[in-house]
Design brief:
The complex is a heterodimer of chains A (264) and B (226). With 264 residues, chain A is α/β, with parallel strands linked by helices. Chain A has 10 helices and 10 strands. Chain A has helices at residues 51-58, 81-87, 106-117, 122-135, 151-162, 181-198, 209-215, 233-237, 242-249, 254-263, and strands at residues 13-22, 25-35, 40-44, 66-71, 74-75, 91-94, 169-173, 201-205, 218-223, 226-231. In chain A, the strands form 2 sheets. In chain A, strands 6-7-8-3-9-10 form a 6-stranded mixed sheet, with helices on both faces. Chain A has a 4-stranded antiparallel sheet with strand order 2-1-4-5, covered by helices on one side. In chain A, helix 4 (122-135) packs across helix 5 (151-162). Chain A is globular, with a radius of gyration of 19 Å. The mean pLDDT of chain A is 92. By secondary structure, chain B is mostly helical. Helices cover 87% and strands 0% of the residues of chain B. Chain B contains 7 helices and no strands. In chain B, helix 2 packs parallel to helix 6. The chains are: A alpha/beta (264), B mainly alpha (226). The interface between A and B is medium-sized, with 21 and 12 residues. Bound molecules: adenosine-5'-diphosphate and magnesium ion (MG).
Chain lengths: 264, 226
């Protein structure tokens, strides 16, 4: 029993040697990642590198072919769904496409997890909903339908839904992708605000370097199934790894450049 | 429940029109032959014997597959590709219980209801042709129907409709739930859902029909309709 009791020094999430393939497509080849409570970790990497796949392992939307996933000191990759259901309220997930239920209003969307997991009265649920919507600056939008919202508003409502049950861990899948720069920065500010006000642990998947540098305590880069960089916003600027630099500076690689020039 | 209202709204008017016109066509086309043989008063029997165990369930099934099955696949498929289904799972709600079970049950409930409507409106259309257009007296029309109709046929028709409803519900939900990514994934899932439902419907109709007519012969011998 002592072995399984989490202590303050234990990481909140631990991915151990995760391997994952989809048919012939090898996506993850031995990913190791531990997340300290209270820290914001940003995962960068090219599109299709498998960043979302990592996030989905943490919430057990995907099970690894090999390796282990631990959350709060418990191993969850082989846990029964019934047991896992007890842990689920402890994480919030902001999906890339927001994933608001389009058959429900904004208010019903945010109320949904509260009604599913608690026995609160209707009036109490409504209070929580307006509190969470206020947190993302959208209280009063309850009667709107998701289809009536802008992209940025959808993300914020989805974020209000993700934090409805006061999770310890929030996972953001490309939270700024598809938003104009000011809208994107609103999301960055929200990520920072939730970190300080709710003391949450966060993982942000992105290929928006401005966002990564702004919100990260730690940045890791995924490439070819492995984490090839692990550092801070400061150290990533000084890296001598050419692949990481290309990403940070938003340049294409010299080989690609050569091939483009030779054909032109 | 909005789901039931939606399903009913999409299917009932269409099945009423279908049942009515199939009844009209069958009656008009069979009248001359029946009249020549002196059996025109038994026209209703031909209609109910065709509709109740056979055409009613099949037409209702086709309507359900086209109007509801496709829409269910599109709805669940869209929820899959926009990650709404993943969102349910992450929030600890079983998407099968939340989304699939009610839709499956709605299909199973509506198939017999649609079949019943198709049978009723088909028979009424036959009555219209016989009594209003061809001056056959009304009471023998209903008398011969009542005389020839058996619980057996009604049971077979009912059973078929429930099986069709379940098959359509299952196929539609399965195809939506396991939809591939992208808009073309949803489109393809819908087409496949309808085509597979349609084929499954005709094939199971053949097997159920063969099984029960064999069983009937073994139990009661041949029944003459005239
Ligand atoms: N459920 C799945 N089934 C099959 N292939 C998948 C699945 N999820 C992701 N993939 C594939 O895995 C690769 C990595 O995907 P993803 O993690 O979404 O990339 P990204 O780093 O852009 O988030 C992609 O090639 C994607 O097509
Ligand atoms: Mg992704």
């Amino acid at each position: 029993m002592t072995l399984n009791t989490p202590t303050q020094h234990d990481p909140l999430v631990r991915l151990v040697d995760i391997h994952k393939r989809f048919g012939p497509l090898v996506v993850l080849e031995g990913v190791n990642l531990s997340l300290k409570a209270g820290e914001t970790t940003v995962i960068i990497g090219e599109s299709g590198a498998g960043k979302s796949v990592i996030l989905k392992h943490i919430v057990r939307l995907i099970k690894p072919d090999r390796g282990e996933v631990h959350f709060g000191g418990q191993r969850i990759d082989n846990m029964a769904e019934r047991e896992l259901a007890i842990l689920r309220p402890r994480f919030g997930f902001l999906f890339q496409l927001s994933a608001l239920f389009d058959s429900m209003t904004v208010g019903e969307n945010v109320a949904f997890p509260i009604a599913e997991h608690t026995r609160r009265k209707q009036s109490e649920i409504e209070d929580s909903v307006s509190e969470k919507l206020a947190m993302v600056g959208l209280d009063g939008l309850q009667p709107k339908w998701p289809s009536e919202l802008s992209g940025g508003q959808k993300k914020r409502v989805a974020l209000a839904r993700a934090i409805a049950l006061d999770p310890e861990l929030i996972l953001y899948d490309e939270p700024t992708t598809g938003l104009d720069p000011p809208r994107a920065d609103e999301i960055n500010e929200l990520i920072l605000k939730l970190k300080t006000e709710l003391a949450v642990t966060s993982v942000v998947v992105t290929h928006d370097m401005a966002s990564a540098l702004k919100v990260a305590d730690r940045i890791v880069m995924l490439r070819k199934g492995k984490l090839v960089f692990d550092g801070t916003p400061k150290t990533i600027m000084k890296t001598d790894n050419p692949r990481v630099l290309e990403f940070v500076e938003g340049r294409c690689s010299d080989e690609v450049l050569d091939s483009l020039r030779s054909k032109g | 429940m909005p789901l039931l209202y939606e399903v009913g709204n999409r299917t009932l008017p269409v099945i009423i029109i279908t049942g009515t016109f199939v009844g009209l066509v069958l009656a008009v086309q069979s009248y001359d032959q029946l009249h020549a043989a002196g059996f025109e008063q038994r026209m209703g029997v031909l209609l109910t014997a065709t509709l109740i165990p056979e055409l009613g369930p099949v037409l209702a099934g086709v309507m359900l597959a086209g109007r509801v099955g496709g829409a269910l696949t599109a709805e669940l498929g869209t929820m899959r590709v926009t990650e709404q289904i993943s969102a349910l799972t992450v929030m600890g709600t079983d998407p099968i219980r939340q989304l699939v079970v009610p839709r499956f049950l709605a299909c199973m409930l509506f198939a017999p209801l649609l079949t019943f409507s198709c049978d009723i409106f088909g028979s009424l259309a036959g009555w219209f042709v016989a009594v209003v257009m061809k001056d056959i007296p009304s009471s023998p029309y209903w008398y011969y129907i009542a005389y020839s109709m058996e619980t057996w046929d009604i049971m077979v028709g009912f059973l078929k409709s429930v099986v069709f409803g379940a098959a359509i519900g299952f196929i539609a939900c399965y195809k939506g739930f396991h939809c591939r990514n992208g808009a073309e994934g949803v489109g393809r899932a819908c087409t496949e859902s309808f085509v597979i439902s349609f084929i499954v419907l005709l094939v199971t109709d053949f097997f159920i029909g063969t099984f029960f007519s064999g069983l009937y012969r073994a139990l009661y011998g041949l029944k003459s309709l005239v």
